[in-house]
Design a protein that fits this description.
Blueprint: E1 21-26, H1 38-44, E2 48-53, H2 56-62, E3 69-73, H3 119-127, E4 132-137, H4 142-151, E5 155-158, H5 164-204, E6 216-222, E7 233-239, E8 245-252, H6 257-275, H7 280-294, E9 302-309, E10 315-321, E11 327-330, E12 336-337, E13 358-361, E14 366-371, E15 379-380, E16 386-387, H8 389-402, H9 407-422, E17 430-437, H10 439-444
Parallel strand pairs: 1-2, 1-3, 3-4, 4-5
Antiparallel strand pairs: 6-17, 7-8, 8-9, 9-10, 10-13, 11-12, 11-14, 14-17, 15-16
Organism: Streptomyces anulatus (Streptomyces chrysomallus)
Modified residues (4-aspartylphosphate): 73
Pfam families: SpoIIE
């Protein structure tokens, strides 16, 4: 049945749309009297360009990106000259999404009793997933019109009510609704991707392996990337069968996802090599080979600090690869930086570099803080022209120690103060971990902290299942 030419009447200016629109009309009109709207443009205040197709094969040829809306006659015969590859078959499926796109992850829609009458519509929705679609049907077929919208059309029109004002408003409404549906669909996909990324990134954060060591553990981790959970900083702590506790913290230059991925690779490689018995220069040389093979560019390097604490907890070996020296606080004494002398270059800078291992006396009761440069490179002072630096960090930590803070409370206060001095969020990644030894607590628990007991009075979580808070 031909689409009637709309009756002309004036349209209020408030209802007009600014900008050209292209309408593709798909209807079977052997007499060639399809819809024409030169008067529609003047009446509706919108320039509407019309393309007409008499079957689905012809419609597929005329369907281009500049088409804004499709007006489909639901009475279009399935044969109607549509013998090409785009012609629907009797078992054509239905679209289950409001945007007209097939969603493999959604539950299948129940087959409608009127699916055969909507075969042309489902075919159009399949070949034009990004276009707005209007369904045109008979005046008395409200049920079919509603079913067309449920399947994926943006709106429906009745032939007997079609005029310039109604058609103009329907086109604009369908286009805007399609845009809103598409935006909502993209937003939902973005949220799902963000949730998947968050789960992945949380899974890549380390779980310290310290059962039986008697050492307390706390950590803070803040990536510099916006809305990220993982940055280029990385750390890990494990205890080997001989009772030695190995700790590591590092920083891949840069802040993007590639740097974060490389940091995870280096951390996992370090854990595997450590559990295999490597340490010191041999371990760092192997890690440098991993970095050289995995990095995206030869300019990428990574700094690293490793500490291996003897089973008695009183001494440790220290290796530095271009990384800031840890901070050691002994019981009753102010915190101080461990010696930086004899440190080696960052990983990835020199092909045959060496990293000497320096022996450090820890004492009976102590706390050892390892950190990345994001903690000390925040700005301080009027105008933010100066950096906090290691000296400023030492003074800040000593001030907090005098207040009686320890463990996670100490790290939380330190990171918060660095952000406050910086005048806002830090742009660089920040990772800080704190290991501590308290002989009184060890004696109280018979040589080591049991698995079910918190690692410290502040941490409040058992070792072996602990993850650092973000």
């Amino acid at each position: 049945m031909p689409v009637p030419v709309p009756q002309q009447r004036s349209v209020p200016a408030a209802e007009t749309s600014h900008g050209d629109l292209t309408l593709l009309v798909i209807e079977d009109d052997p007499a060639g009297t399809t819809i024409t709207v030169p008067e529609l443009s003047a009446a509706a205040g919108t320039r509407v360009r019309i393309r007409t197709a008499r079957n689905l094969t012809e419609a597929a040829r005329l369907l281009t990106d500049d088409v804004d809306c499709i007006l489909l006659d639901l009475a279009l015969p399935l044969t109607g000259g549509g013998t090409g590859p785009g012609t629907p078959t009797a078992d054509a499926g239905t679209s289950g999404t409001g945007t007209g796109t097939a969603d493999s992850g959604s539950l299948p829609e129940p087959v409608s009793e009127r699916a055969g009458e909507l075969a042309a519509l489902t075919h159009v929705l399949g070949i034009a997933p990004q276009h707005a679609v209007l369904a045109l049907t008979a005046q008395d077929d409200t049920e079919l019109a509603a079913e067309a919208v449920r399947v994926g059309a943006q709106d429906y029109l009745f032939r007997g009510e079609l005029d310039a004002r109604v058609l103009s408003r329907a086109i604009r409404y369908a286009v805007e609704r399609k845009r809103a549906d598409t935006a909502q669909h993209q937003l939902t996909e973005s949220r799902l991707r963000a949730q998947e990324n968050a789960r992945l990134e949380r899974g890549l954060l380390p779980t310290p392996l310290l059962d039986g060591s008697g050492l307390s553990f706390a950590a803070r981790y803040r990536p510099g990337r916006s809305r990220a959970l993982l940055g280029g900083d990385f750390y890990d702590v494990v205890r080997t069968p001989d009772g030695t506790v190995h700790a590591m913290i590092g920083d891949v230059c840069g802040h993007g996802p590639d740097e974060a991925a490389l940091g995870v690779e280096l951390r996992i490689a370090w854990r595997a090599l450590t559990l295999a018995g490597l340490c010191g220069d041999e371990l760092l040389s192997t890690l440098q080979q991993v970095l050289e093979h995995e990095r995206q560019s030869e300019e990428i390097f990574a700094t690293l600090c490793t500490v291996d604490i003897a089973p008695d907890g009183r001494r440790a070996g220290l290796c530095l690869a271009g990384h800031p020296a840890p901070l050691l606080a002994r019981h009753g004494l102010p915190a101080r930086l461990l010696p930086y002398q004899d440190g080696g270059p960052a990983l990835g800078l020199l092909p045959r570099a060496r990293w000497p291992r320096r022996q450090v006396e820890l004492g009976g009761a102590w706390s050892l803080m390892m950190y990345t440069d994001g903690l000390i490179e925040g700005r301080v002072g009027t105008g933010g022209s100066e950096r906090l630096g290691q000296d400023g960090m030492v003074a800040m930590v000593n001030s907090r120690l005098e207040q009686g803070l320890a463990g996670e409370e100490l790290l939380e206060a330190a990171v918060a103060e660095v952000r406050e001095l910086n005048g806002g969020e830090l742009t660089d990644d920040v990772a800080v971990l704190l290991l501590g030894r308290d002989p009184e607590r060890i004696r109280r628990w018979g040589g080591s902290a049991p698995r079910s007991h918190p690692a410290s009075s502040v941490a409040g979580r058992p070792l072996g299942v602990q993850r650092p808070p973000l």
